[in-house]
Write a sequence for this structure.
């Protein structure tokens, strides 16, 4: 009983504290035109109970973190379902308050009272639950259903892959132009994420200026077309080359840096490239950007519909190439040396790894992909300007990598899809996009720092090649 | 007389106003097991770091001779170049690649012996494939020599402490060194593990023909293993010789026990 009281007290205090903190914005409303102040006392219980619930859920999550995977997931789901009902009912109650009719106002108060009493009762039940679980010995149970193992089976894997292939091919023909465009952007983002993953996930070098390579690729095509009329297919390989060269250019001065210092220098590099593009107006047309860059043509010029579908397949093929190359590098002498450098630079050097070479390889291999995707961006949107390559772009790619799982190819793919598709399809949340990613990253770093799909290390066996 | 692998002449290392190692000369001959002992802060690890290229020596000459008796002055060379000359080391505070498996750690040690580059990795031609198969086999056999094969696919950080120390030795052995420098290999080991280490080090020397220089505080291990002992105190070499000679040296006793 003592413990229940303690839990209740700490939730209560947190709620009170947040109530005081948010008092000026949640309770007082100043009407600047009439110069009047409206006191919205009805918000007090709402704020109080929302915080109360969330502080409890938070502490419960912290407790569950110590439990073994599957079990904790189940408990979290049940908890959030139970606790989720309360806020929803509260929102209903609050919206009823806003209507003028007095009967509804009474109804709303009753509803709120019911919700809050319910939550408190539920709360004390859950706390008892926590108490009894703590005394229980945590036993390791083998989960009945191993997701990875099931996926790895050939009988499951092959039909799934076939299904995926059919879906990928059919997608542009069954969905509209708008959706094809979004999916193409998402695929491009996957390639960017995989490229940055080489630098951050394998090399362990925090790079905050990745969008600069992206910009270099895009301007590579834009400028080559503007001055010499170079077509898409001519610019694509040159995009990779210019990315590579830029990777080496940024790689050389930062050879001695790591950690925060490296992050600052790469951040500056990203901004320098953008500012150069903006200010070399005579050469790059400055902030006005380069317009009317042609879409890639297939023998002849395509109409918008077909060009979009064509581009979708180009990007998809490029993504497959990226995955193939990165997987091969990951499982090779070069990939291992990058990871060794990430884990311990001094030890890696003592094992005969040339750090200079390893770092340059990291930057160059990472930059190539951004260069390629840059060319595609120019070909997709037909218009580029420096405003598309801000720090925000670099940060979003970084978020995709960290969220999905550093060093893990499936993780980065999922991360990139989440980061691009969620804001696209949940437009009404667009104002809160950054807030959501911020919260997601904080929660991830506490509960699952290795990312949504963490890296699985290869299992070696003697004699035969293992998958 | 056998070949001198490592020769240090009149070497000093100065950090600001501190002479961490002061005019030290020593040499390691092929096939020896040599110990470097001394109280804490005597400059033993500093000497190791200079020999392996982590620090750049302030004064003096450090030279390494290769199997064909070609001698190279290694002052200021990068650690990876020194490793290629056949010097490999372990670290006092374990420095394994903690996210990688035990086997992958050893495979990293094979790095300087391999050739595959980026293009080879992507195309995975026959040569690269063979090389990769070879490195897995070699690494497994090195793990086997140290009794670590059961940990091959475990993350290095999850190994028991003693096994992590052995894994560091395995990783160093993978570079096929002529001289292995062990920095306190028995630190934190229990007596049983230390006995096992004693046998292992002897076996590495006898079977693999690798010369060994070790820093160690466990005197029973030092006395049982080493054929020659150097004693450092406050950066100065105060004694040199066989275990019996060093044990009887009054300067050594004074350094360890005080007046």
């Amino acid at each position: 009983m003592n413990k229940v009281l303690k839990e209740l007290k700490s939730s209560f205090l947190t709620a009170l504290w947040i109530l005081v903190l948010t008092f000026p914005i949640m309770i007082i409303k100043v009407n600047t035109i009439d110069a009047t102040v409206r006191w919205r006392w009805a918000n007090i219980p709402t704020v109080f109970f929302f915080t109360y619930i969330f502080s409890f859920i938070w502490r419960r999550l912290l407790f569950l973190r110590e439990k073994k995977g599957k079990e904790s997931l189940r408990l979290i789901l049940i908890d959030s379902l139970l606790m989720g009902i309360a806020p929803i009912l509260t929102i209903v109650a609050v919206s009823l308050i806003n209507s003028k009719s007095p009967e509804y106002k009474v109804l709303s108060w009753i509803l709120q009272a019911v919700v809050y009493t319910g939550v408190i009762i539920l709360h004390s039940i859950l706390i008892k639950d926590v108490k009894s679980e703590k005394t229980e010995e945590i036993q390791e149970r083998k989960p009945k259903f191993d997701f990875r193992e099931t996926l790895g089976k050939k009988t499951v894997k092959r039909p799934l892959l076939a299904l995926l292939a059919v879906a990928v091919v059919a997608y542009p023909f069954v969905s509209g132009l708008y959706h094809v465009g979004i999916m193409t952007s998402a695929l491009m983002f996957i390639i960017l994420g995989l490229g940055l993953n080489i630098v951050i996930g394998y090399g362990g070098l925090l790079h905050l200026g990745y969008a600069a390579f992206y910009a270099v690729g895009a301007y590579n095509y834009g400028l080559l077309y503007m001055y010499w009329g170079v077509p898409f297919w001519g610019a694509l390989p040159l995009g990779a080359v210019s990315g590579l060269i830029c990777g080496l250019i940024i790689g050389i001065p930062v050879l001695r840096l790591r950690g925060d210092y490296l992050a600052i220098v790469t951040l500056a590099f990203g901004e320098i490239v953008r500012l150069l593009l903006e200010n070399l107006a005579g050469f790059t047309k400055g902030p006005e950007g380069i317009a009317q860059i042609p879409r890639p043509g297939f023998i002849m010029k395509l109409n918008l519909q077909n060009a979009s579908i064509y581009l979708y397949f180009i990007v998809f093929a490029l993504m497959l190439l990226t995955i193939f190359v990165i997987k091969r590098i990951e499982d090779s002498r070069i990939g291992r040396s990058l990871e060794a450098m990430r884990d311990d630079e001094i030890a890696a050097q003592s094992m005969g790894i040339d750090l200079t070479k390893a770092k340059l390889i990291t930057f160059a291999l990472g930059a190539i992909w951004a260069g390629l995707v840059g060319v595609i961006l120019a070909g997709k949107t037909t218009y580029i300007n420096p405003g598309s390559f801000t720090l925000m772009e670099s940060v979003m790619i970084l978020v995709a990598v960290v969220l999905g799982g550093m060093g893990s190819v499936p993780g980065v793919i999922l991360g990139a899809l989440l980061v691009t598709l969620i804001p696209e399809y949940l437009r009404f949340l667009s104002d809160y996009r950054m807030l959501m990613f911020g919260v997601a990253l904080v929660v991830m770093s506490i509960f699952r720092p290795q990312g949504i799909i963490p890296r699985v290390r290869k299992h070696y066996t003697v004699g035969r090649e293992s998958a | 007389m056998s070949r001198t692998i490592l020769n240090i002449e009149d070497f000093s290392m100065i950090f600001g106003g501190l002479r961490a190692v002061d005019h030290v000369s020593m040499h390691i001959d092929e096939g020896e097991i040599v110990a470097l002992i001394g109280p804490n802060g005597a400059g033993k690890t500093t000497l190791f770091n200079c020999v392996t290229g982590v620090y750049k020596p302030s004064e003096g000459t450090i030279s390494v001779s290769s199997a064909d008796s070609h001698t190279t002055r290694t002052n200021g060379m990068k650690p990876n170049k020194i490793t290629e000359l056949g010097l490999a080391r372990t670290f006092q505070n374990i420095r394994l690649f903690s996210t990688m498996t035990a086997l992958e750690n050893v495979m990293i040690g094979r790095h300087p012996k391999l050739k595959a580059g980026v293009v080879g990795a992507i195309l995975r031609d026959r040569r690269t494939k063979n090389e990769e198969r070879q490195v897995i086999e070699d690494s497994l056999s090195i793990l086997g020599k140290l009794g670590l094969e059961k940990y091959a696919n475990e993350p290095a950080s999850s190994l028991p402490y003693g096994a992590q120390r052995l894994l560091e030795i395995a990783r160093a052995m993978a570079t096929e060194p002529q001289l292995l420098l062990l920095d306190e290999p028995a630190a934190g080991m229990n007596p049983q593990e230390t006995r096992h280490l004693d046998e292992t080090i002897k076996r590495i020397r006898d079977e693999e023909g690798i010369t060994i220089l070790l820093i160690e505080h466990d005197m029973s291990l030092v006395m049982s293993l080493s054929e020659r002992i150097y004693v450092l105190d406050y950066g100065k070499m105060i004694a040199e010789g066989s275990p019996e000679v060093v044990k009887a040296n009054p300067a050594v006793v004074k350094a360890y026990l005080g007046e």
Remarks:
- The longest helix of chain A spans residues 102-135.
- Chain A is about 75% helix and 0% strand.
